[in-house]
Amino acid sequence: MQGLLNDWRRTNYTKNVTPELSGEDVIIMGWVHEIRDLGGIIFVLIRDKDGLIQITAPSKKVEPEILEKIRNFRKESVVAIEGTVQDSDKAPNGVEIIPRNIEILNLAKQPLPMDPTEKVRAEIDTRLDSRFLDLRKANISSIFKIKSQMFHTVRDFFYDNGFVEINTPKLVASATEGGTELFPITYFEKEAFLGQSPQLYKQIMMSSGMDRVFEIGQIFRAEEHDTLRHLNEAVSIDAEASFMDDIDMMKVLNNMIEQVIIDVNENCSDELAILDHELPIPDEPFPRVTYDEAVDIVNSKGVEMEWGEDLSRAAEKALGDVMGGFYFLTEWPSAIKPFYVMPLESDPTKSHAFDLMYNNLELSSGATRVHQYDLLVEQIEERDLNPDAFGSYLKAFEYGMPPHAGWGVGADRLTMVLTGVNNIRETVLFPRDRHRLTP
Ligand code: ATP
Ligand code: MG
Question: Which residues line ligand 1 (CB under 6 A)?
Answer without folding.
Answer: 221, 223, 230-231, 234, 236, 362-365, 408, 410, 412-413, 424
